[in-house]
Fold:
Amino acid sequence: MVLMKNYAIALGFEGKLYDNLIKAWQILEKKMNIKYISTRRSEPHIDIIGGSIQNVEKLFKILKKIKIKKFKLKSPGVGILANNEPNLYIRWEQSAELLKIVNLINKNTSYFFNRIGKFTNSSLWIPITTVAYKDFNYSDLNLIFHKVNFLFTKHYAVIHSIYLIDYTKNQIITHKINLK
Structure:
């Protein structure tokens, strides 16, 4: 019997927005004990596709063959996904370049996944990076906005890598491809 693991393909980024997100996670943990995401995330990232997979090494070999260069991506600020448990996230512009890369990755890798996650299914996918989830509620939003208001402006980041993230338990980057 082959062991199934839950994996995601994600884009890693760098720049001032990355630094600001790390700072926001530290502030939220220290001032409000909001740490569910920051203590379970290996690195801030943008998930592309995820789900159950059997052979991560074959997937990694295919990903290495996809030719993607570093690129700049704009974030207009922060948003909220309104559910029973709100999700505070960094919004990303769905630029033509980003959508081309997402489609290329999905086209070349989706067949590796036995079950694709609900929110990385291409019809529901939106580019986000989660800031906080599960350990806050709507009544906390005003204070959160006050504490991390520096995230609420337009930023740019450089997409510099592709991650394979094992999220079977906590999120662990097991493979990384540096973009040139």
The mean pLDDT is 93. Strands lie at 5-14, 45-53, 71-75, 77-81, 87-91, 113-116, 128-133, 155-166, 172-178.
